[in-house]
């Protein structure tokens, strides 16, 4: 699903729509007091069940009666299907919502409800929402419930009497008769148990037959399957291999939808008939399930749905003799599933899932760190070998330094075994007097005052920077929950202790929010292939490690506290191959998982990867010479573009006209088509402009080779960017995809033309900075249109003068694109920028990409989302529409507490990112974060995550400067520090008011805010070009936390004595670990050499009296004077110091996606100012030094 | 004054529609783009109707009534001047409307204005009847 609301129906028709997922509502939740507390689920001990939630619907007893009679039958999930059907109808009134679910029978039943709901006028756009809110479906639910029960009992009878026979009573057997062919093919059941099997697969539920296949009957099964293969085969002949599952499902669903819509007017019986008529279609859902698993061999054996298989296995776990129609193990669906799930638990580098996933997705960011050294994000608990080192899991964001056995600092030496308190020691200094306090911090876990609350006198304590990078605080949860919790790299909250009420939050004066990096490149990710994705029926939360299992059959949602049934299929654990342990499933053992979504999660067939490049070829652009770099990068990476056999690519160039390129296969050379009517742009030819990458590869290569030289003599200085974008939108709108725009100047012609708004004299004004907002809404409108058509626009701005990025950036901001800016780009005059463009492009072209994505953030009842930050379009209160999602995109969310959280001790947040992978698979990546709820102000401060707080504040400040003014935003930043510190000091009564005291958790807060104030985005008084400022703001909005922190507060290391530093070992390389230095010129000694890591740039500053050995060994020059002005690479010299330096730099580089550009700086270098402006603790003519800033804050507090 | 009282009702349906629309947004029923597209064309007519009545009051020398309406007129002018950058008429920007603050503000504004219009409607009705009876 995905298509943002409001788009016209897709070619495929609104094929199905909302996950036919569970979600109906039972009239449940009649308050019945506390439910039995579950012991097996990961509930924290203090967990209280709010009354009214933990109850079970009285009706529930009816189905459970059947449990006893038919022990292993999935009554519950059967009911699920009913609810599922009913749920979606009121909210997402897509025609035939459920069509794509394997359970055909459900549809039949469903139509009755749908019929009703179609009469009610639900707006059609909401159809697209995959993950809809679910409160309030109750009225329909009650109705459905009864019907479900009826059908169930009929079904149960049928089962007990077993086999075939009439039972036309409810219409079910009719189904099974008619679906006999496909179902048998999918089942490994002998004839005896055939009807149940048929039904079960129709319901897509796990179904355990009591009569196990006797060995002699296997043959029969095989014959059945061979018979039935004909059906899928014939259907799939036209479908490309590897993609068939989804396509065939859709096609079938489409026709099936017709059936259904026709039948809506008729009775149920009629529906049945119609369904039966479409016999082939109806066989598809079953088939489609198997396709999910078995990607390579479309027609083979028509295997059962994974659910079916797993249930077959359950009664006799050692059922290895299970008939397989294919000799190859990997082709067998159940083993594939098995493998996929098994491997999800393996933490070794040889994890098949890892490979599998990489192979599927392709083009991922190559993680060079070896897996054994890299932190494991969320390894499953059941592995006993791992339990010996539990804290490695709970703390996956650690730098490898902390994971490594070689202790780099004396402090670490005291604590080699990952003691729970270890998160504190990096903040300590190895000084003798502080060592004791750091050791004290280790045991603070149990003491009264947590380490985060230890008062730090900011004005006296100058050395507050930690030795190495600042770690994320660990939520104060019990160890079980802690190790299950989401990696702070992907998901962080500004307050790791959630305040109970909004009043308490207001008192703390800290912002509450989430920092997300949802599509991060992961080295290890459990991928779950399962026909049913277990979700809460009322709030649609995905099952996660923090739900509680009330008993074997029921789980309680941790967000809305609704009690849900555990589907039968979920009872089987493919990891342990055991039955009846739902709490050991990978979904429940990992807080970051990825589901392969079924066709319920699609609005249309998954789109192919489509890339369109829109290139500026005006005189200015040709002069800058970027075309060569772009074309060469594309040529190099053409094969690495993420995609499958359907990948399409196209090119548009523009100056004062728009040029299209016909690359249709069969042409002898690329054909340029020029459209000069830029006021009414049209596509010169209906096809051939976006071509299949593989079919037209030669033509594309020809074009890329020719492009850089085609416009060398152009005299055209105008730029009709707006028209080119309109043309690009027209070209992309049928499919969606990615538009990459390369622009080098202010658009000066046609739609969307802009005028220069920057007054160079105002660049260093301390007062109002104007024009931070867009000048026109043309680009915003275009972005919204693009977003509606699942197209993202990425902007590469390579300009030497003002280009009004504030207006241009809108095209990417609202279409979920990304923005790159290369000020004063020139291929020969500015080689650093050229190199950066080259590196960025390499990453950009080859990184993973998700198409037609939506992201929904759910949180515990009582919390609500206030504002989103990032590049996206907000489609509803908790849903972001992301035309594309890339691994480098970060998001921030401001939260507010609407109802007090008094009845819970844990607050949970879940992000679900639904996207189409470049291979055409629908996938859902789910992250869940669990945090404790506290009711005292001290605890709130103890759990503050200063980096997250600063990043969220930065996002808010950007909004403020655009909507209000820059000085306003700056004041707000300072006030944030003043307010929170004074609130803290007033709580701690025993502190002297004369000193500036901060809790240990917030001791870096003033420093970071000062850094923000000196950041390009917010600084005043220093000359800052408007575009630079706007770009910095765009980056603050869209960068994930790790990169943003480097931007705000760079890391400074001394590198001329790396040999003496402690080291860690990564990938057989020795990596020195120099301590972080303060960002102050007082640290820069003339004898030293320093490396500053600003995220996108590395600066190496060489002191005048630097040791000649260092200069010779590392830089390759005899002395200081001979170092050239422009040096961007370290030579490979066979010396220990050179080796260490290079390994250190490459280690720093490995940790980030964008490879930073290195610049060596001598004293007279023009880049010196860039370097020195990052020394934020120093005083500048326009801004405070750190100490002055502290005094300023203290003054404000005392006021 | 009498005729105006009846014509006054023009604003109310517009406003009611707005309030419902914001509620729909909040409860997730509708896409913000569509919602803004339906709401934006209604903003100017509402303001113009109000301005028209103010002019009529001015002509009729209804100083008290005019005085009551001036603050709202000023608010309307301010509100329209400070609208986000957009090419078409209207106030609401689909990209910012989902912000909790803005949505809450718009809803509150809608309710307040509805109350004002309703009260003034009855006041005008009273005025009309009073004039009819006394003449």
Features:
heterodimer, A: 1199 residues, alpha+beta, eight-stranded mixed beta sheet, 41 helices, 36% helix, 14% strand, globular, disordered N terminus, B: 135 residues, mainly alpha, 0% strand, elongated, transmembrane helix (chain B), Cornichon_conserved (chain B), membrane (chain B), Cornichon (chain B)
Briefly summarize what is shown.
The complex is a heterodimer of chains A (1199) and B (135). Chain A has 1199 residues and is α+β, with helices and mostly antiparallel strands. Chain B: This is Cornichon family AMPA receptor auxiliary protein 1.
Order of helices and strands of chain B: HHHHH
Largest sheet of chain A: 8 strands, mixed
Total number of helical segments of chain B? 5
Which chains have the largest interface? A-B, 33 and 20 residues
Average pLDDT, all residues of chain B: 81
Distance between the termini of chain B: 13 Å
Helicity of chain A, in percent? 25-40%
**Number of H/I helices of chain A:** 41
What level of helicity do the residues of chain B show?
over 70%
> How would you classify the helix and strand content of chain B by structural class?
mainly alpha
Please state the oligomeric state of the protein chains shown. heterodimer
**Strand segment count of chain A:** 34
Shape of chain B: elongated
Strand content of chain B: under 5%
Radius of gyration of chain B: 16 Å
Mean pLDDT, all residues of chain A: 69
Largest β sheet strand count, sense and barrel closure of chain B: none
The separation of the N and C termini of chain A measures 55 Å
Task: Report what the structure shows.
The complex is a heterodimer of chains A (1199) and B (135). Chain A is α+β, with helices and mostly antiparallel strands. In chain A, 36% of the residues lie in helices and 14% in strands. In chain A, strand 13 and strand 14 form a beta hairpin. In chain A, helix 6 runs parallel beside helix 11, helix 27 (721-732) runs parallel beside helix 28 (778-788) and helix 38 (1108-1115) packs across helix 39. The two termini of chain A are 55 Å apart. Chain B is an all-alpha fold. The relative contact order of chain B is 0.19. Residues 1-9 of chain B have low confidence and may be disordered. At the A-B interface, helix 28, strand 21 and strand 22 of A face helix 3 of B.
């Amino acid at each position: 699903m995905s298509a943002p609301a409001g788009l016209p129906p897709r070619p495929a028709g609104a094929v199905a729509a909302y996950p036919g997922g569970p979600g109906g509502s039972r009239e449940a939740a009649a308050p019945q007091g506390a439910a039995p507390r579950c012991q097996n689920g990961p509930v924290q001990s203090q967990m209280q069940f709010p009354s009214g939630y933990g109850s079970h619907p009285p009706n529930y007893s009816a189905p459970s009666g059947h449990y006893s009679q038919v022990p292993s039958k999935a009554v519950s999930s059967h009911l699920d299907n009913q609810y599922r059907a009913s749920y979606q109808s009121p909210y997402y009134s897509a025609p035939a919502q459920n069509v794509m679910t394997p359970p055909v029978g459900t549809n039949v039943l469903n139509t009755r409800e749908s019929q009703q709901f179609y009469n009610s006028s639900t707006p059609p756009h909401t159809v697209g929402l995959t993950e809809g809110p679910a409160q309030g479906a109750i009225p329909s639910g009650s109705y459905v419930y009864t019907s479900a029960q009826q059908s169930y009992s009929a079904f149960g009878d049928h089962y007990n009497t077993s086999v075939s026979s009439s039972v036309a009573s409810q219409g079910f057997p009719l189904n099974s008769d008619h679906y006999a062919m496909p179902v048998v093919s999918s089942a490994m059941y002998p004839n005896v148990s055939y009807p149940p099997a048929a039904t079960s697969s129709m319901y897509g539920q796990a179904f355990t037959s009591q009569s196990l296949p006797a060995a002699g009957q296997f043959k029969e099964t095989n014959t059945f399957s061979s018979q039935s293969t004909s059906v899928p085969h014939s259907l799939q002949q036209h479908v490309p291999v590897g993609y068939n599952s989804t396509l065939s499902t859709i096609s079938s669903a489409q026709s099936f939808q017709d059936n259904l819509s026709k039948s809506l007017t008729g009775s149920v019986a009629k529906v049945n008939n119609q369904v039966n008529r479409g016999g082939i279609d109806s066989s598809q859902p079953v088939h489609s399930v198997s396709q999910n698993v078995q990607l390579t061999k479309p027609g083979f054996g028509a295997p059962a749905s994974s659910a079916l298989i797993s249930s077959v296995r359950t009664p006799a776990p050692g059922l290895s003799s299970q008939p397989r129609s294919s000799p190859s193990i990997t082709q067998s669906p159940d083993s594939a599933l098995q493998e996929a799930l098994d491997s999800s638990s393996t933490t070794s580098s040889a994890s098949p899932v890892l490979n599998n996933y990489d192979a599927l997705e392709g083009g991922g960011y190559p993680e060079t760190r070896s897996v054994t050294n890299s932190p494991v994000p969320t390894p499953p608990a059941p592995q006993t070998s791992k339990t010996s080192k539990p804290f490695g899991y709970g703390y996956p964001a650690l730098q490898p330094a902390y994971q490594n056995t070689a202790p780099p600092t004396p402090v670490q030496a005291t604590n080699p075994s990952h003691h729970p308190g270890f998160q504190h020691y990096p903040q300590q200094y190895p000084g003798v007097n502080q060592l004791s306090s750091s050791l004290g911090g280790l045991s603070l876990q149990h003491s009264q005052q947590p380490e985060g609350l230890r008062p730090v006198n900011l004005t006296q304590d100058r050395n507050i920077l930690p030795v190495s990078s600042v770690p994320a605080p660990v939520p104060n949860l019990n160890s079980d929950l802690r190790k299950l919790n989401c990696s702070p790299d992907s998901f962080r909250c500004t307050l790791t202790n959630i305040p109970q009420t909004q009043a308490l939050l207001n008192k703390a004066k800290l912002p509450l929010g989430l920092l997300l990096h949802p599509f991060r490149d992961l080295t290890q990710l459990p991928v779950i292939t399962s026909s049913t994705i277990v979700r809460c029926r009322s709030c649609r939360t995905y099952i996660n490690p923090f739900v509680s299992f009330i008993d074997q059959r029921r789980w309680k949602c941790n967000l809305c506290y609704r009690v849900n049934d555990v589907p039968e299929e979920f009872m089987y654990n493919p990891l342990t191959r055991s039955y009846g342990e739902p709490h050991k499933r990978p979904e429940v053992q990992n807080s970051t998982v990825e589901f392969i979504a079924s066709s319920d999660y699609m609005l249309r067939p998954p789109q192919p990867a489509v890339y369109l490049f829109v290139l500026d070829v005006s005189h200015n652009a040709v002069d800058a010479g970027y075309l060569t770099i772009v074309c060469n990068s594309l040529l190099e990476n053409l094969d690495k573009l993420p995609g499958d056999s359907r990948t399409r690519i196209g090119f548009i160039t523009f100056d004062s006209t728009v040029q299209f390129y016909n690359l249709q296969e069969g042409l002898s050379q690329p054909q340029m088509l020029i459209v000069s009517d830029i006021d009414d742009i049209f596509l010169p030819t209906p096809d051939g402009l976006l071509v299949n990458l593989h079919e037209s590869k030669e033509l594309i290569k020809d074009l890329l080779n020719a492009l850089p030289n085609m416009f060398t003599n152009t005299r055209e200085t105008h730029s009709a960017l707006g028209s080119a974008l309109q043309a690009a939108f027209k070209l992309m709108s049928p499919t969606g995809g990615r538009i990459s725009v390369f622009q080098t100047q202010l658009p000066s012609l046609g739609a969307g033309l802009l005028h220069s708004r920057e007054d160079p004299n105002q660049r260093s004004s301390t007062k109002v900075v104007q024009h931070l907002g867009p000048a026109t809404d043309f680009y915003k409108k275009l972005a919204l249109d693009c977003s509606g058509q699942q197209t993202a626009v990425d902007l590469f701005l390579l300009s030497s003068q003002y280009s009004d990025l504030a207006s241009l950036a809108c095209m990417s901001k609202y279409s979920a694109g990304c923005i790159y800016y290369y000020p004063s780009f020139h291929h020969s005059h500015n080689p650093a920028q050229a190199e950066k463009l080259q590196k960025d492009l390499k990453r950009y072209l080859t990184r993973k990409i998700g198409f037609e994505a939506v992201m929904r953030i759910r949180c515990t009842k009582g919390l609500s989302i206030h504002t989103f930050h990032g590049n996206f379009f907000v489609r509803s209160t908790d849903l972001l529409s992301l035309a594309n999602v890339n691994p480098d995109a970060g998001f921030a969310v401001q939260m507010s507490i609407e109802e007090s959280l008094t009845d819970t001790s844990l607050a949970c947040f879940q992000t679900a990112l639904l996207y189409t992978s470049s291979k055409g698979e629908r996938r859902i990546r789910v992250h869940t974060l669990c945090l404790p709820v506290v009711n005292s102000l001290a605890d709130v401060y103890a759990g503050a995550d200063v980096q997250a707080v600063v990043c969220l504040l930065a996002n808010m400040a950007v909004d403020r400067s655009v909507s209000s003014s820059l000085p306003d935003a700056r004041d707000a930043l300072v006030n944030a520090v003043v307010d929170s510190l004074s609130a803290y000091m007033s709580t701690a009564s025993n502190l002297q008011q004369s000193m500036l005291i901060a809790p240990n958790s917030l001791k870096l807060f003033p420093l970071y805010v000062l850094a923000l104030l000196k950041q390009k985005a917010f600084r005043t008084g220093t000359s800052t070009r408007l575009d630079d400022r706007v770009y910095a703001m765009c980056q603050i909005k869209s960068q994930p936390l790790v990169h943003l922190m480097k931007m705000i507060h760079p890391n400074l290391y001394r590198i001329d004595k790396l040999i003496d530093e402690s080291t860690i070992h990564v990938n057989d390389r020795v990596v020195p670990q120099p301590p972080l230095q303060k960002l102050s010129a007082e640290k820069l000694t003339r004898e030293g050499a320093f490396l500053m890591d600003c995220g996108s740039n590395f600066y190496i500053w060489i002191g005048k009296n630097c040791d000649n050995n260092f200069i010779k060994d590392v830089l390759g020059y005899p002395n200081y004077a001979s170092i050239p002005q422009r040096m961007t690479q370290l030579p490979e010299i066979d010396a220990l110091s050179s080796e260490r330096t290079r390994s250190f730099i490459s280690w720093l580089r490995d940790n980030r996606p964008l490879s930073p550009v290195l610049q060596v700086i001598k004293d007279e270098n023009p880049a010196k100012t860039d370097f020195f402006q990052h020394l934020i603790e120093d005083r500048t003519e326009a801004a405070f030094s750190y100490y002055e800033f502290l005094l300023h804050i203290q003054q404000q507090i005392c006021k | 004054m009498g005729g105006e009282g009846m014509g006054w009702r023009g604003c109310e349906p517009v406003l009611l529609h707005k309030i419902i629309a914001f509620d729909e947004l909040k409860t997730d029923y509708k896409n913000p783009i569509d919602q803004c597209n339906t709401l934006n064309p209604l903003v100017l007519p509402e303001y113009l109707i109000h301005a028209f009545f103010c002019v009529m009051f001015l002509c009729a020398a209804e100083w008290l009534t005019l005085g009551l309406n001036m603050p709202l007129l000023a608010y309307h002018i301010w509100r329209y001047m400070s609208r986000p950058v957009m090419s078409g008429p209207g106030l609401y920007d689909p990209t910012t409307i989902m912000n909790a603050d803005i949505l809450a503000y718009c809803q509150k504004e809608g309710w307040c204005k509805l109350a004002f219009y309703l009260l003034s409607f009855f006041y005008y009705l009273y005025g009309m009847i009073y004039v009819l009876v006394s003449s």
